Amino acid sequence: MTDKRRARRPAAFRAGDVKIEIEEPAFEEPLPAERRADALASGGAARAGRGLRWGSLLLAGLTGLAGLGLSLWLGTLVEDLFARQDWIGWLALALIGLVVFAAVMLVLRELWALMRLSRLGRLRQQAARAIAHDDKEAAAEVGGRLRSLYSHRPELDWGRARLAEHEADIMDAAERLTLAERELMRPLDVKARALVADTAKRVSVLTAVSPFALIDVAFVAQQNLTMLRRLAGLYGARPGTIGLMRLARMVVSHLVLTGGIAIGDDVLHQLIGHGVTAKLSARLGEGMVNGALTARIGIATIDVCRPLPFIEAERPRIRDIVAKLARG
């Protein structure tokens, strides 16, 4: 630094004769909490998105090379077939067109399934915001979208009619969505609980009697994926193969966030008591643990796929399902 301050000599003075003025530093006006959180989130997202995603670039390059190679191979194949006989070449072109059409339809079906799965999540978030802010218009919109979502379900015709009849008489947003939950969600929740309980029972029984660990792993994976697909279809998602994989990832993320993955002997002791677990054999106890994990995955799937949050209805509890397994 070029400027040097002159050293001040010590001097005697009285405290009352000196007025000390402190210059306050100029600070910007603080942002509200919501705007500050949004700014932090946007800044973090911007920082996170700056780097190149080398894995995505690698996947895109490999996909492009594979598509280019397949196109050249098909072109060569068609030319060779035309060189042999014209009708064979035209037949090959027709078959290629059929394959392309089927692939496009599969992609469209998967995209539609992903959109329906995302629709359930948006409905649940919109309902939660409507309850938090007492937004009557948003609650009415959620009710209308729920009636449209289940318009093709004959078992919910009576519930849709009652919702349309009494919804206009309710002014409170939470009460309006409670009515929608009572009329539309309750029958689906009963079926969902029964589906989760039956799947957990099958998993616990088979893993308790099966002597092969590989069979146990394959059966548990197949049963859990089937349960995920049926629960999503019950609430209106209808996931395809890609949608099922995305749903499984969402369920695992939900389990990690809620801390519901670890279910071991200590949890079983708390759920069904020390006396019962002490009488269980090692294999039977393993079957109980697998059944409890399946039940936990089923409850997480209900949380992810249910288009409304639990307002008045009681959320399924793993304690009840494990108690049924223990009694069985």
What key attributes describe this structure?
328 residues; mainly alpha; 2 domains; 12 helices; 74% helix; extended
Task: Report on this structure.
With 328 residues, this protein is mainly α. Helix content is 74%, strand content 0%. It has helices at 33-48, 54-84, 86-133, 136-149, 157-166, 173-209, 213-234, 241-258, 265-272, 274-279, 282-305, 318-327. The chain starts with 32 loop residues before the first helix and ends with a helix. The relative contact order is 0.09.
Give a brief outline of the structure.
By secondary structure, the chain is mainly α.
| Termini Cα gap | 83 Å
Broad structural category: mainly alpha
- Categorize the overall geometry: extended
H/I helix tally: 12
Measured as a percent range, the helix fraction is: over 70%
Question: Care to count the β-strands?
Answer: 0
Unreliable spans: 18-49
Mean pLDDT: 77
The largest sheet, given as strand count, sense and whether it forms a barrel, is: none
Please compute the radius of gyration using only Cα atoms: 31 Å
Number of domains: 2
Give helix and strand order, one letter per element, not per position.
Answer: HHHHHHHHHHHH
The percentage of residues in β strands lies in under 5%
